[in-house]
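Good morning C.,

I know you're traveling, so I'll keep this short. The sequence:
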Amino acid sequence: MAHIIDGAMFRRMVISAAAAIEIHKEKVNELNVFPVPDGDTGTNMSMTLNAAAADLRKAEDPDLGKAASITASALLRGARGNSGVILSLLFRGMSKVLKPLTECDGVALGKALNEGVEAAYKAVMKPAEGTILTVSRLAAAAAAEAAEEDNDFEATLQAAITAGKEALANTVNQNPVLKKAGVVDAGGMGWMLILEGMMAALRGEDFAPPTEGTVVKESADFAAFDTEDITFGYCTEFIVSRDNDLQPAALREFLDGMGDSLVLVDDDEIIKVHVHTNNPGTVLEEALKYGALVTVKIENMRLQHTEKVMDEKDLTPKEAAPEKKYGIVSVCAGDGLAEVFRDLGCDGIISGGQTMNPSTEDILKKIQQTPAEIVFVLPNNKNIIMAAEQTIPLTEKKVIVIPSKTVPQGITALLSFDPEGEEEELTAAMTEALGNVDTMQITYAARNSDFDGYDIHEGDYLALAGSSLFGTDQDLNALLTALAQKVAEDGREFITIYYGEDTTEEQAAKAQEIFSECCPEADINLIRGGQPVYYFMISAE
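The tokens, ready to paste straight into the viewer:
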């Protein structure tokens, strides 16, 4: 058994754990007990932990403290969704114990796991049993107890895994929603996959990221390449006019010995050349034998690469100097909704929402770019609130998170904003406004399920009122009519219907007609929101 671990092994364990959760993320996603397609716990945990794995891969032989610090920092900035934020807090607490150490034994592991649990519990306003918090707490307690008897790292980790599995199996009995669905907690499952991934590395059986297909990145990692690896430093391009009978084949042969990436094309009038070389002057001197230079371009590729790497390493978002007292940043998905928020005075829009949770760093960048002393953040989704709150200690700007759980709540809060008001008054007014609007949404079922007495089939339309399932039907207009009748019964006077990217103009017009018939006295507006996932998002005040 491994009695202790060092920084190299901790690094390896985190990378293995990231691969484990990536491989099994869909298994975790499928534990979502609600039929709305927001089963993204596994995806959020995977993206969060893989942010740390990516940074650890770049670190050369870090000691334990450094590896722990890299992990905690990357997780904090990369945290997505509530599950990702809680995961980052578990590792942040662990890092607090591991930073001063060069080696970690069983006792230190027990302390680290418990410190992580304490950090996570402090951040959650109303901790519930039968969640990742329960699983991590019982696993950590078992680890500490085992370490008192046998101060062996591997034995301690195994005790945590054994107890964690028992706790996970019991989550179905602790949470009424889980019990009704007959599944265990998704976040708890993710935590166990992570611990098992760490154990696999410890035993020399590291998980490796899935290799099926090629993952195409939005941009390359230039820091993965050394500047010294560029053999020929100057990208040299030129066009020479053909002023004599010398043949281009001879120039091709000469250039072939001067570098690489040679491309030479010619016709009766010119010769065009592209070549990477260390001696562009010699190349051009030889080219002049064939005629006059028409165009020349020489670029230092080593310098370009160095500048690119430096840009990538400067990961701290640039902080815009304050030009005003207040600024507002909002999260939403859909170009129409984004335009609404901009028209109401938002300084920055973060693309995200249901199934597309932005990371803490995504939110932080928009905050930093906002030229204001105080920045209000509207998450507009209950699964983004915690990630937004993690930005508060990461910037010198004052950040105030208004806990909006839906886009209509965010819009209503924004309508209550007075740029001339005092900070405390604004915070109170915007927070109070959240309760003045009812949000209804229509989406679809991602799979067959039985929830709250509803027999739901994959592809059915689902109507949500607040966070509760209101009804399900294969007829979209039937659901719209039921929602409109509810709004009429509640006596709401102002109704806004935002229709999504998958909603036709005809469907949108029919929705407005239905609400107009059911609520003849109400002021009804129809706006193209362009949001994904939801066919309709309805605000009633």
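Safe travels,
E.
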